[in-house]
Amino acid sequence: MTAHSSPPDQMRLPLQRDLPEGPEGFVISDCNRAAVEALADWPNLIGGVMSICGPEGGGKSRLAQIWAERVGATALHGAEAALIDPLELEGRPVLLDDAMEADDETLFHLINLAQAPGGALLLVSREPPSAWSAALPDLRSRLDAVRTVPLEPPDDAVLAAMLEARFAERGIRPAKDVIPYLLRRIDRSAAAAATVVERLDAMHRPVTRALAREVVEGGDQSGELFE
Fold first, then answer.
1. Residue 211 pLDDT
2. pTM, to two decimals
3. Domain-embedded: residue 139
4. How many domains does the chain have?
5. Which residues of 193-217 are buried (b: 16+ CB within 10 A; e: fewer)?
6. What is the CATH number of the domain that holds 214?
7. Residues in Cβ contact with 122 at an 8 Å cutoff, skipping those fewer than 6 apart
8. pLDDT, tens digit, 9 for 90 and up, residues 180-208
């Protein structure tokens, strides 16, 4: 009996390919276009403080990292920002991811420093600064005044790109109808895309729509990442 190889669109690629980490790997679509355009030329001329916010897994941290690399910003994260002497950041752009976790005093100093020549502060969080709690009255007024640009949950174009990237990382070439099938059935987040691809990979079988259905239905039973 002659063995038959899998159809080309179901084969595992022999080598994982390197995925672009810079702007060329970031898909621009309606869900993130406003934030992309807001950051395109910022902080040139105006400086100050800006916030991008949105649900987990929507790409806001990735977009912020691209911005930080472009402008040479110092990248800080959450409560760890308190370990940096704010005076060392004077006159330079700063990225603060998970900004809601920073303490009031740190936020207050960073916002003030952003007003100095050469300064800028990009805040990244799920909720807009106007929704954060703040015990310092002066901080409250500053947070309320921050220009905020929301990112929406990934739309079909962005979620498809996330799935394609996760498959490529694992050297998987799914059947052509797999990604359209998954778009209608998984949560719209990077975490859901990574999880479903991991589960498909763990099956060690050609990634077809039938296999995707099997994995998604199993996810439905667990009630974790699938709609």
1. 97
2. 0.79
3. yes
4. 2
5. bbbbbebbbeeeebbbbebbeebbe
6. 1.10.8
7. 39, 49, 50, 51, 52, 64, 67, 68, 73, 93, 94, 95, 96
8. 999 999 999 888 999 999 999 999 999 99
